[in-house]
Amino acid sequence: xxxxxxxxxxxxxxxxxxxxxxxxxxxxxxxxxxxxxxxxxxxxxxxxxxxxxxxxxxxxxxxxxxxxxxxxxxxxxxxxxxxxxxxxxxxxxxxxxxxxxxxxxxxxxxxxxxxxxxxxxxxxxxxxxxxxxxxxxxxxxxxxxxxxxxxxxxxxxxxxxxxxxxxxxxxxxxxxxxxxxxxxxxxxxxxxxxxxxxxxxxxxxxxxxxxxxxxxxxxxxxxxxxxxxxxxxxxxxxxxxxxxxxxxxxxxxxxxxxxxxxxxxxxxxxxxxxxxxxxxxxxxxxxxxxxxxxxxxxxxxxxxxxxxxxxxxxxxxxxxxxxxxxxxxxxxxxxxxxxxxxxxxxxxxxxxxxxxxxxxxxxxxxxxxxxxxxxxxxxxxxxxxxxxxxxxxxxxxxxxxxxxxxxxxxxxxxxxxxxxxxxxxxxxxxxxxxxxxxxxxxxxxxxxxxxxxxxxxxxxxxxxxxxxxxxxxxxxxxxxxxxxxxxxxxxxxxxxxxxxxxxxxxxxxxxxxxxxxxxxxxxxxxxxxxxxxxxxxxxxxxxxxxxxxxxxxxxxxxxxxxxxxxxxxxxxxxxxxxxxxxxxxxxxxxxxxxxxxxxxxxxxxxxxxxxxxxxxxxxxxxxxxxxxxxxxxxxxxxxxxxxxxxxxxxxxxx
Length: 654
What we know:
Low-confidence stretches: none
Number of strands: 48
Number of helices: 5
Structural class: mainly beta
Oligomer: single chain
Shape: elongated
Number of domains: 4
Strand content: 35-45%
Largest sheet: 9 strands, antiparallel
Radius of gyration: 46 Å
Mean pLDDT: 91
């Protein structure tokens, strides 16, 4: 009978242990990363009164007779279910979603925790502020890869991002094919036909002997109206005459005074020609040296201070001699024209250019006469404009309208219209190796050639040493065909002050990430959408990504991976041992840890600006508490009842 007392004691002790675990769970209901415990019971080996007997003489076997000796605690298990995540807004607070533990160490011992309430100390170490233990991970190398060693995560808070020189830019956007409403270049009833004022000479290709201030002063006298400005001549050697012409025309394109008024060409004999874009006797052209000590005029092979007059055009004038032709017409080029008579009746036709056959202004006028019918076409002797005269009456036709446009066959021919060439500029910042900022401007000017634009680049308002001008040629559907510099070089600019020169590749073709240049009837919108340079910057913010990568954001917009928080997983995480301070230690039961990156080696995900809450379920714990209380009371009742029986037994002697 006395055994029942001891049996009740085992029940009391077991339920007391369970109550201890429940109380601990409830006490840690708000402990970050806490994992609740669970108690399981087992019976104690009972006392055998009889082993039972085998079947005999037709009698069945008998069962063993055993009386139990009570209960014991079989195990106290960790419940590793996921706790809910709470957002904190603190970048260094981390939570593990899924499997895995943070690895922390103090230089001698390594521990594991689900509590990610971390912060950076004054030395830049990512630590657990409650224990001072340092979070373990991999530090990043200069090339962005990670070291293989697992070590303290240290992010120097005074870290800087080095300056990087710009090596490439990408142009993207549209160039308005309508030229801001001007349309393609055309000849109309307002067009004055004439021969340009021109100067020709055998130019040198070497200008390295001139200083950057050397230039060509160009003067245009149009009936007493003087236009004068200076073209800069970059001090360098040009590979050929075409490169020289491209550079000189680029200087015109960025000169607000001379733009659209003069043009450089090279003839079949190799001469350099400077000509006006307007013709007629009222136009005179002359050149001189901008600096008396730099004879640029002689280097270009031109005649100084000698006015070259323009001339009137006549029926016998060659079309390619007209000031109205920007780039020579070639065999097969078609001029299409259409118009309306004073009566409103429409007329139209085409003129096909053929050198030696249909290459004069008279040939063009004859085709216009045939299309109109009953008129003579000619030029007004005073204005050089197209006039029509009635064949019968001899009276001049008034009130008619006509437009002539060039259908170029792709040979690079072009004409000038009545309006100045449309242009569009875009600007961006580029950086040298010291991080100094320079202003890069790219100016686009619509060419006399259809679907072709010339572009000129300047840096800080100065002409780069190479790659500063070229052409953008578009297909008929508005997509980009080619974009390249005239000298096939990258843009080269000497920044000065001992800083290495800038070499910038200018790209304009479309990519998977960025669009390219287009030429549609839509407002011009070209801009630099990407450039790879940057100034020096200071670390201003640190973010931790889902895979544990620590990314630093710098004041120059650069981001760098500085390190990586690692996670550890165990084959049996329930076998870990609590050691206090929300830490666990490895045991034989847990197995060896597998330490690696989140979302790859370890499948858990790291959530920044969040912490994992305790996984204690209060409702479950209160129910367990009530059940434990009843078990404790029942075990205690066993003891009191046994005591009463013993008392009754003692009283039998009375």
